[in-house]
Design brief:
The protein is mostly helical. It has 17 helices and two strands.
């Protein structure tokens, strides 16, 4: 059970996307429901991330990271992300010998030009580095970049043109800002794109029924006649999450009910059902299966 001030939400509701959407639209407990759903997904994500490093993996890391860094080959060998490899290498004090270091000349150029132009394309080309790398180095050195404020002239242009053309490429080039930042500023000023197509209740019902199981598939985009970005943005607002998983059949449930009490989510059962141990365990709990004895768990 999950409790709010005057409302009790049963945990089974959290798995029903239609009910969640109804609650978030018609209840004043929108934030509570979305928070519960977010926490459940974060827990699932964190479980997959909490994979401990073995001594064999550390030996491979010590041997190969200084020479190749977080290369695609090393990522495949360790079955870990580049971020995880970089982080672990930093923890154990490893450095990539091939990594390009900032020279004294690079730092001098950075101190001279970054305050005025930030991580501009010219500076990226001159230093041979990405904008993210330049921004990170400037932050470490305590160098502050120039912040581009909206002038009265630009705000006037935005007020005149945004309702007619939205965050068009012409405005992006004119303001030297991303379409996202232009849209955010327009929303803050109360400007609305007149030609923007609104989502109907029928379209939202289609999203509720189909998005959790098929995501932003080509068929769904075609039926709604909308772009992938539009669908993903609106499903995020609605609080829908894509759960790309196959439905349990009656035969699979029968196998689960017969074998789970004896062997738990064993490797044999995982192979038979072609599902993860987490999926098997969660389904077994929903079906009311008895938990296996500790000695039978594998």
């Amino acid at each position: 059970m999950a409790y709010t001030d005057n409302c009790t939400i049963d945990s089974s509701i959290i798995n029903d996307f239609r009910t969640i959407h109804i609650l978030t639209k018609k209840s004043r407990f929108t934030k509570v429901v979305r928070l519960l759903f977010f926490v459940a997904n974060e827990r699932k994500r964190c479980k997959t991330m909490a994979k401990p490093w073995t001594s064999e993996e550390l030996a491979i890391l010590n041997q190969r990271y200084p020479k190749e860094g977080a290369s695609d080959a090393l990522v495949k060998t360790l079955n870990r992300t580049k971020q995880a490899i970089h982080f672990k290498a930093q923890q154990v004090g490893l450095r990539n010998a091939k990594r390009k270091r900032f020279t004294a000349e690079d730092i001098e150029i950075l101190r001279e030009r970054y305050p005025n132009e930030g991580a501009s394309k010219d500076l990226q080309k001159l230093l041979g580095r990405s904008a993210a790398t330049i921004n990170r180095k400037a932050r470490l050195l305590g160098i502050k970049g120039a912040r581009h404020y909206w002038t009265e002239e630009k705000l006037k242009i935005l007020a005149e043109r945004y309702p007619k053309e939205g965050a068009s490429q012409e405005l992006v080039q004119l303001f030297q800002r991303s379409a996202y930042l232009i849209s955010m500023k327009a929303n803050a000023l109360g400007l609305r794109y007149e030609n923007k197509r609104r989502w109907t209740e029928e379209e939202e019902n289609i999203l509720i029924e189909r998005y959790p199981w098929e995501g932003a598939s080509e068929a769904l985009l075609k039926d709604l006649n909308r772009s992938r970005a539009s669908v993903l943005n609106h499903t995020s607002i609605m609080g829908l999450v894509c759960q790309k998983r196959s439905m349990w059949t009656a035969d699979e449930e029968k196998v689960l009910l017969e074998r789970f009490p004896e062997e738990g989510a064993s490797e044999s059962l995982q192979k038979t059902l072609n599902r993860t141990s987490t999926a098997i365990y969660c389904k077994a709990m929903r079906l009311g299966c008895q938990k296996p004895a500790q000695k039978n768990r594998k």
